[in-house]
Amino acid sequence: MNRLNKSIASALLGGTLILAPLAAEANSDFNVRVAPKTTIHQMKDKKVVPLQTVNTTREYRIVRPSGWYYLAMSGGKPIYIKKSQAQVVPARSLTKARISSPANRLLIHDYMRQTPGHAPYEYDRLTTDQARQFADRALRGDWYIPTAPNQLLVPNIDTFNWHKDVPAVDSTSYAFQLHYFTVLNQLTQAYNKTGNRAYLQYGERIIKSWTKAHPAANYKRLRWGYNDQGTAIRVFHLLNFWDVYKKTTLHKDPAFTELMLKTIYEHAEILAAPDFYKARHNHGIFQDMALTAIAQSFPEFDKSAAWQTLANNRLQTQIAHSISSDGIHLEHSPGYQVYVYHTFARFLTWAEANGFTLPSRIEDIKEIPEQLTYMVKPNRTLPIFGDTAGHLRAMNIIPGTADYPHLAYAVSGGTEGVEPPLLTKQLGSQYSFMREYWANPPQAFSGATQVMMTAGYHSSAHKHADDLSIDLYGLARDFIVETGRYGYTNRPERREVFKVEAHNTVHRFGEGLDLSPDMVGKSRIVSVEDLGATSVAIGESELIGKGGVHRRTLVYDKAKTLVVYDKITSPEPDMFVQRFHLGDGLTLSRGSIEQNDVTFRDATRRTIQLMQLETDEDSYMAIRPSHLSVRDFEWKPREQVVSVEYGDDVRYITLIRIDRSNTYIEQADIEERETDYVLSYTVSNGETGEMTIPK
């Protein structure tokens, strides 16, 4: 921290700068600071002449700039101090009114020239080629927006109508990215990499155009202009732009300085407003980060200390709510385990680089990478639970992946890092993990079987009706897989993916899960154990509603066979539906729904067999159409296996086997004992197996 910032920081007391004695004649809110041996001047006979030389550091209240001098007051008398020998500092903290005061306009402008820049927090990091390419497009009026259609034509930014000239597109991410100033970020990064001031000049025009169309007073009526997360991200792009702009020769207009400070101040006011804040959500985390950035970048603002305290307190609460003590992010989506760690890790690096302070609870993120290891599937994707996309993950999955050898092993396909030690693991109350192997030559890394189950209801953030849903992967493909998030859009497909019918779980016929606020906390993974011959995971949920309880037990033989035991108890009898959505490209090849025994096969002869073993005369099985969205905005047709039971104490025992050897289970029998079931089966090649299912 340089001398100027140290002096400002030391003067802060309760968010307000300690005031120097006010002279009655003073009419600005700034002092001029001079070092020892500086000559003070006076006006005499209409000429500025030396008055005295100071021996110590002194401060005088500025009246106004006057040519090459500052006119100030000393003992009630006017004095003149050369600008080249002076430092302008706030005499008191800056309110919004003082920022806009005509008496302060030129002084704030001069003061901003002297303030240091900061290491940037870049929400979207670009390569040099990307930054230059996108910025050059912007200068031509052909803006690049990361979301399709990836373009916005802006022939003249000075006359652009932000409310009428933005096309209507399906994805909500388009407007989100536009208004969080993705283009300003491109321009700023391009300037940093090339020094071309044309990028900053165009950025200035964008800010003037946008702020005119989006007055802060109207923030409640401007959905995308003041989106809860977009507003926070825009703060970082504004700060990054301002830090470099104010140090260039472009910084000539005091009116633009006033606009920038006023805009940043008003963004802080909005971020601090209780009715704008997104509690118990990663959007609120971004809001707290942005408010912290403003408070610590502008200690001169009168509310900065209060904003910092508010941001710290809220962020502590957010972290406690959204990240478990063992490093599981609790927004129901493995993809957000990645996203939130990215956010916090880079924010922590940014804060350290700038000497900013953050709440102590941010250290809770340190366990996230290790837990993420056990979410990565053998094909190096994440299970598409909640709002997780199914694209391939690599060594850049988080910052510094190489520092976490188990995660590096998982995302590199075993070519880097160190083999993780566990094949069975409970990931907080949110997920269960069971895997066949990490390395088993000559079998391929991607060929291992992996079974996961999701549970947990912590908030509405990215919450689907998917409690106790499962993901079954093996033989280098998905066999039972969620529908996916589809993408952030207003299309009907996006609404479909939230429904319980889109998930691999059990629900009441014609009804969804109960996701009312009263049900928060009533879904969890109970236990995950390695029992030697098998691994067992148990989850329990009350979200099935109406006082009912759904308990799901997974018994995995550590190879290719899985038993799913669903027990549903309900105060009143009802019809319950169990669903398993199959992976892409699987078609019925043998068996029948009448026999409650079906086998599906893909083009390379990989099969999945599903047998219902606990059935009665009211049971039935059906094959129904479904859809799959592994990647955003794809909607592939596929099949789902649906089984229906009626009662107040309903049991499903579903035997599932994956295979590529043209064999199948011919016979399966269940023996019920006091505390468990014993399942024995015979494969078509004569092999037999036995699995114990705890009740």
From TrEMBL:
Q: By its UniProt entry, which InterPro entries does this protein fall under? A: Chondroitin_lyas, Hepar_II_III_C, Hepar_II_III_N
Locate the Heparinase II/III-like C-terminal domain: which residues? 447-639
Q: Where is the signal peptide?
A: 1-26
Domain Heparin-sulfate lyase N-terminal span(s) in chain numbering: 110-389
Name the UniProt record assigns to this protein: Heparinase II/III family protein
**Keywords recorded for this protein, A-Z:** Lyase, Periplasm, Signal
The answer to keyword Disulfide bond applying to this record is: no
- Lineage summary: Bacteria, Bacillati, Bacillota, Bacilli, Bacillales
Source organism of this protein record:
Exiguobacterium alkaliphilum
